[in-house]
Amino acid sequence: MRTRTLLLTALAPLAWGSTYAVTTEFLPAERPLLTATLRALPAGLVLLAVTRQIPRGAWWWKAAVLGALNIGVFFALLFVSAYRLPGGVAAVLGAVQPLIAAGLAIPLLGERIGPRKLLAGVTGVFGVALVVLKATARLDAIGLAAGLAGAAAMAAGTVLTKRWGRPEGVGPLTLTGWQLTAGGLLLLPVALLAEGAPPAMTATNLLGYLYLAAVNTALGYWLWFQGIGRLPAASVAFLGLLSPLSAAVIGWAALGQSLTALQIVGMAVALGSTALGSTAAPKRAKGEAGGPDLPLATQAERRQSTSATA
């Protein structure tokens, strides 16, 4: 069951790797925030209409926080980084996300990160760098800051999604709809202020946006949040290394981009790091009850129940 869940969750970053090709080949140029908004908001609204559930109680602000971290803030910073840095540098910055998630999982989830995961995180960054980084890459301070902040936002969103779990009776599809809607609503005014009204759309543009919203985002994030609910957060974060690898393969197969022997070696290193990091079971902190798949609230309730009946 764990292997099946890992494979299904891995489909999300593999799909996200197609974003660059779809954006460059199907969408209007110089509209990154519009693209981010149209990826998130329509998909979120459709999922809300399908599931017919809205947040209640504390989940109004929890859904807003998760939507901001996983969608709104992450998408915005991702595009700032992509526009100010070469794609390779931006991808390497994104590859540090598993290390950040592993670090956050220690205080927030009570996980102890062993040397196996640390080794996987470092070698994963190195492998991605071999695939996408060029010697002529230029650096930009704002782009670097945005790339690191975006990786931190997604890592924090992944860990908090695991920590808070889901309300009783709420499935992954509903939680995905809440977050996409919240993130899209956050992006909408920013996109309008920064880029103005949307341009006239061609049939090709509409097809590209439909793919990004339906497959790349709604389906992709549903698989991602479902995986977070069933697997350790740090393990899920390592699957994000598949995204730049997928982008490189799609660029070679569909866009005619070159793929050198060094890049193939980097892919092998990154894939090995992904397997190593995502299959390593985290150790619970000393005295921590419950398994890694349980939200902390559930574990706390179990401890209280056990102490009451002892």
Automatic annotation (TrEMBL):
- Any idea which UniProt keywords this protein has? Membrane, Transmembrane, Transmembrane helix
Q: Which residues cross the membrane?
A: 31-51, 63-83, 89-109, 118-135, 141-161, 173-194, 206-224, 236-255, 261-281
Does Membrane count among this protein's keywords?
A: yes
Keyword Transmembrane among UniProt keywords = yes
Region described as Disordered? 282-310
**Where does the EamA domain start and stop, copy by copy?**
5-132, 142-276
Tell me which domain of life the UniProt entry assigns to the organism this sequence originates from: Bacteria
The protein's matches in Pfam families, at most eight in alphabetical order, are given as: EamA
Q: Where in the cell is it found?
A: Membrane
Topology within the bilayer: Multi-pass membrane protein
Principal cellular location given in the protein's record:
membrane
Similarity-based family = Belongs to the EamA transporter family.
Q: What is this protein called?
A: EamA family transporter
